[in-house]
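Lab notebook, bench 4. We co-purified these components, and the gel suggests they stay together. Before we commit to crystallization screens, I want a quick structural picture of the whole thing.
Request: model the full complex, all chains together.
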Amino acid sequence: MASTGKQTTDEPETAVETARRQLERAAAHLDIDRGIIDRLKHPDQVHRVSVPLKRDDGNTEIFTGYRAQHDSVRGPFKGGMRYHPGVTEEECIGLSMWMTWKCAVMNIPFGGAKGGIVVNPKELSAEEKERLTRRFAEELRDFIGPMRDIPAPDMGTDAQTMAWFMDAYSMQEGETTPGVVTGKPPVIGGSHGREESPGQSVAIIVREACDYYDYPLEETTVAIQGFGSVGANAALALHKWGANVVAVSDVNGAIYDPDGLDIDDIPTHEEEPEAVTTYDAPEHLSNDELLELDVDVLVPAAIGNVITEANARDVDADIVVEGANGPTTTTGDEILENRGIPVVPDILANAGGVTVSYFEWLQDINRRQWSLERVNEELETEMLKAWNDVRDEVETRGVTWRDAAYIVGLSRIAEAHQARGLWP
Ligand code: NAD
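Here is the predicted assembly.
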């Protein structure tokens, strides 16, 4: 599908449209061979497989699975595997392109991939989910591997899913191959700190953005939408570092205390799903009201497309740091840009997840587990490097943080293509 260019309505773009538009925006600042840009608009390969599952009642049902592999010029493909009824080939392609930029902005030697199965995981028993995962691993076996393509958990999949996937692959290959997936339980080669890492990186980027814009962290107010893996871990880290996290939310609504919430006390999504609003706070708000709070920093960390044409004029935060993937629509982004509100993009802020996945892969290949302290130290180092690279582009080119991040990523990918040339 071709890019529609600048959107005139706030119809959310498809992931492919967004990825192609961002590619063109970044390319306009760089002197890159047109052939390389055109190659990057298309995935290297998209695998579509049928995955038969014997249901618990004895019937056989066929599910469709995908694996989109966008670009591997800098290293093996890397990206999540989701189980969701809304999975489409096009969405997998778009998300695989985002993964290419995300890995490049972090300077991780991976390219982008994304995949999944069109299935509602809530309608599967644990045994069915295991059988489906094992068969999916077998259907994809020729296309994946520690040096080819390394899946990870995403919506509807978790560490247990990765453990089944890794076991199925290893059994068929005849050798234990932990490096075929990341996000595994630590007992079979998973990394300490992997679960907390996207939220941790969001917190690091909020801290750096506050420093850059002269907001002392102890005097900074932060509102965070979503109190799941990303939102809660970001909130916990920021609270620990002295920031005033004044509002958090889950799907049921938000809680607000202008003097700062006691984040350690609020049940996270993992501890007690969707229990934020049961916490005794001075004020209860809707998710929409949270997005419009007068705070220093707003972190949308729940779902996509929440800052839109409809509410971007009412966002009252001074800085936005994207914790979720794609929380700001194109029009929402333009409105914030025109209002002078900086938006630090997802491909930088939540990239701690793929960064610690890379650490996990290194640990698996070297057969040596790192301590949590080492993981956190190296994550901090990598996040600061990426932050500094993006900040340099913001300062030298006078572009937005989003454009700067894409410029950093695209330069690296294009240079690699230039150096390797075109085969044959
Ligand atoms: P999660 O399921 O752990 O938590 C999601 C949170 O958002 C929950 O508190 C849930 O109640 C809330 N929520 C759900 N629907 C909502 C709605 N309509 N309005 C307000 N809140 C709502 O998910 P997560 O892993 O924290 O992921 C959050 C976002 O971050 C997603 O966009 C995801 O793609 C992105 N992300 C996740 C990771 C990761 O490794 N977990 C890495 C990078 C990016």
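Residues 77 and 111 are 4 Å apart (CA to CA). Worth comparing against the SEC data before the next meeting. The two ends are 27 Å apart (CA to CA).
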